[in-house]
Amino acid sequence: MTKMCDLPRPTRHRPTREQREARPDLEALRATVGPPLSSGRKRKQGAEAHDDAETIREARAFCYRCHKAAVVCLCDRIRRVSNRTDVLIFQHPRERFHPLGTARIAALSLEKCQIVQARGDAGGLGCHLDTPPRTGVLYPGAGAAPLDAMVGDERPEQLIVLDGTWSHAHALYRENAWLRALPHYELHPAEPSRYRIRKEPKAQCISTIESIVCALEILEPETEGLVHILRVFDSMIDDQIRFML
């Protein structure tokens, strides 16, 4: 008789790093679309059960364009904006599929905008990017110049914005020396963040999309459609509040 310990163990194939990062944050998505039906509930029959199944199927669907659950997809709300200043969003890997992330709103709305994920060696965040002349980073602190005080050639033609929580942004900044070598700019928002379901560490701290719109309103006030980007952001927050009630 063959003993269990003598049987060959099945080979387990672990997903690659790219496959793991391509997965949406399922726990965060469940929080967005609500919990599944409890297994302890009495099963429904006929048309009622079919309607419930359709509701669950729709809730679990995911839009890979705006990176939101299908029931709160933002794609139909977004309008393209012809901005002049290049916007480069340097994103922490954990922010990629966050259901309340705002970088995708910027990337889908702005004609000159790209998202670059920080991927260094051995899973680190350090990775050098070649930047054109007159590139600056939006990062507050000592040595940062008020963006609204810049004139002429002092203004950046490409603006780098760090995307993630404030601790993630600090980590990106700490592990990328090339960022620290760039001109630094800071904003002085006229009002607190509209991110009503997140508490910012300081009154002047605002979300990624708010920072981008605020900066573009300073650099190119003639550009049309920037206010609508914030309306899309507001509607995303409204959706989340609705599912939390």
Account of the 3D structure:
The chain is of the alpha/beta class. The chain has a domain of 160 residues. 33% of the residues lie in helices and 12% in strands. The strands form two sheets. The chain has a six-stranded parallel beta sheet. A two-stranded antiparallel sheet has the order 1-2. The relative contact order is 0.15. The N terminus is likely disordered.
Q: What is shown here, in short?
A:
The chain is α/β, with parallel strands linked by helices and 245 residues long. It has a domain at 78-237.
Estimate the global geometry from the Cα principal axes.
Answer: globular
The total count of strands amounts to 8
Q: Trace the largest sheet across and list its strands.
A: 4-3-7-5-8-6
Radius of gyration: 22 Å
Structural class: alpha/beta
* String of helices and strands: HHHEEEHEEEEHHEHH
Number of helices: 8
* Nearest-integer average pLDDT: 82
Distance between the termini: 60 Å
**What composes the largest sheet?**
6 strands, parallel
